[in-house]
Amino acid sequence: MQVRQVELTNRLGLHARACAKIVRVASRFRCSVSLIWNGKRVSARSMVAVMLLAAGVGATIRVETQGPDEVEAMTAMVQLISDQFGEQS
Amino acid sequence: MSFVLHGIGVSGGIAIGRAQLISHATIEVAHYSITPSQVPAEVERLTQAMQAVQKELENLHGAMTAGDAPAEFGAFLDVHWMILTDPTLHETPKRTIAEQLCNAEWALTQQLGVLVEQFDSIEDPYLRERRADVVQVVERVLKVLLGRPGVVRPAAAEEETILVAHDLSPADVIQFKNHHFAAFLTDLGGVTSHTAIVARSLNVPAVVATHNARALIRENELLIVDGGRNVVIVNPDRSVLAEYRLKQDELELERQKLRRLRTTPATTIDGCHVELMANIELPEDLEQARENGAAGVGLFRTEFLFLNRDGLPSEDEQFEAYRTVASGMKGHPVTIRTFDLGADKHKEGLAGLTRVAPNPALGLRAVRFCLAEPRLFLTQLRAILRASHYGAVKILLPMLSSVSEIEQALALIAQAKESLREQRVKFNPGVEVGGMIEIPAAVLSMGAFTPRLDFLSIGTNDLIQYTLAVDRADDAVSQLYDALHPAVIKLIALAITTANRAEVPIAVCGEMAGEARLTRLLLGMGLTNFSMHPAHLLTVKQRVIASDSSLAKPIVQRMRRTDEPARLIALLEKLNA
Asked: What is the ipTM of this complex?
C-alpha cells in the first residue's frame, strides 16, 4: 500500500471540477484509491463521495493506493493535486 | 383553516395567489408500494431513466463541443455526468426499491435527501453549494421517471403563483427571475438577502424570515402576501379576501398613475433638471429600466457574471454582456461598475476569496481585490473598453479609499487601452472613469479625488455601514443602521457640496436614492443625479416633480448642522410636508 499526505494548494480546494479530475485519474487504475481527510475516508472513484469529503483550500489530505498498479496511481494522484488540478494560478 | 404568518416585508405591495412550494428537489414525488415480483421491473425503470439522462448529457456535450458554447459549460456537464454515473446514486436506490418495496422515484428522492443532508453539514460555504449539482442531476432523472423529461413544473396559468421556499440561493433567484411569481416567501433571509434584492427589482412583494412558512403552508393553498405590513394570510376568509382585492386595486390604480410619468421630464418646480437612472444587476434588467423611463444606467453591477459557475468569466463573455446593455441603452449613459467582490457579495467560483477573512467588510474586496488580481481586472477592463465602442459606457471603480488606488486603477485602464490599441480593437479612448464614494475617508479627502476622476457616485449603503460601523445584515445590530444618522447626513452633504464646487458630476446610487421620503433631502443637498432600482424610478420622479429645491435648501442646511436625531426627523417632516 502507498500512502502520501498532500496539501490542497489550488484556490478552492476540492470544488466540483477538481473532484471530477480526481475521479477521472483514479478510474484509470486497477488499484483502490482512497482519500482520507477530517476523519472521513472515501473512494476516489466516487464523484459524490469526493465532493462530500469537502476538503477546502489548505487541507492536507491523505491519499492511499492499494493494488497492482498502486505506485503509478499514487504518482498520478500526487501530480494532479500538486499541479493544482491544472488550474490557472 | 385561516391563519397569519409574520415575517419581514422586504418588498412592498400585495399579492394574492396560490402557493407553490419549492423543496430541495423541486419535483414533488409520490410514494407507492410495489410487490416483490415487481422489483426487477422497477429497478430496470430506474436504470433506464439514468441511462436516458446519461445520453441526454452526452448529446448536449457533443452539441456543445461542435458549437461555440463557453468551455465552462462543458466542464459543468462533465461534473453532472460523473455524478450521474456515481454508484452512490445507483446502488442505494436500487437496494431501497428491493428492501422497502417502493417506487423508483421515491427511492431516488430518499437517497437525494440523505446526500443533501450531508452536503448541508459541510462547513465551507462554497463546497456546500455544490449540493445544487447533485440536486439538478437527480431532478433530471426524476423528470424522466415521471415521463416529462426536460420540462419545468407547469405553473397554474390562470391564477398567480406565490413561491414558498425555505431559502433561496442566488442561483435559484436568477432562475426564478423568468418565472413571473406574484410574490416570494422564505423561512430565512433578511433585508439584504438575495430574495429581497430580486423581489424589489422585480417589484413583487416579498416576506422573508417567516421561520416556518415552508412547513405550515401546503401546495396550492390560497395566500395573501402583504409586503408592506410584513404579513402572510393563509387561506383567508371571504371578507379578508375582498378587502385585500380592493387594496390591490387601489395600488394598481396608483401604479397606473405613475406609469403616465414615464416620459415626463424629471424637473423640479424651480426648473432644476434631475437625472433619474437605473441600477441593474443583469443585462435582462434593461427592459425594466426602459419601461420605467430611466435616463440611463447609473450602476451596472457586474457580479452576476460569477453566479452559478466554477472559474472566471472570459473577456468575450463579459464583453457580450456589457455590449448588450451599452447598445440597448441607445446612447444613454451606461455606468459599469468593476467587480465588487468579497464581504457580503456572493463569489461562487471566484478564486482566492473563499478564504474566510477575519473581517470581510474591511478586507480584500472591490477595487482592493481587483488591484490584487490585476489579470482578472485587466480582463474586465478590456471587456468594458471594447463595449465602449457600442454605447455611452463609463467605468466606475468601487470602494476607493486613497489616491494610490485611483492611480493604480487608472494605470491599469491605460494598460488595457494600450493592449487594445496594439491589437487594433475599437474602443472609446475618452471613456469616463469615476469612483464610488463609500468610505468616510473618501468623503473627507475628496479634494484629492475630484481632479483625478471624471465623475463620482455615492454608495450610501456601504457609506452608512462604514460610518456607523454597523453590518445591517446582522440581526443583532441592524436596528443601529440608520440613513438619517446626523453623521451620515453630514458626510453625504459634504460629498455632494465638494463635488459640485469642483464641478465634477456626482450621483447617489445607494438605496437612499430610491426612497421618495429622502428625495427632497438629497435635492436640497444639491444632488441632481439619482440612480436606483428601476422599480422606484417613477415614484421618485413623482416626488421630484412636486419638489422645489430652492425651498428645500434652507431646511437641509439646518439638517446638516444638527447633531440631534429628533431634530433631524422633525426637519425632514417639515421638508416633506
From this structure: 0.88
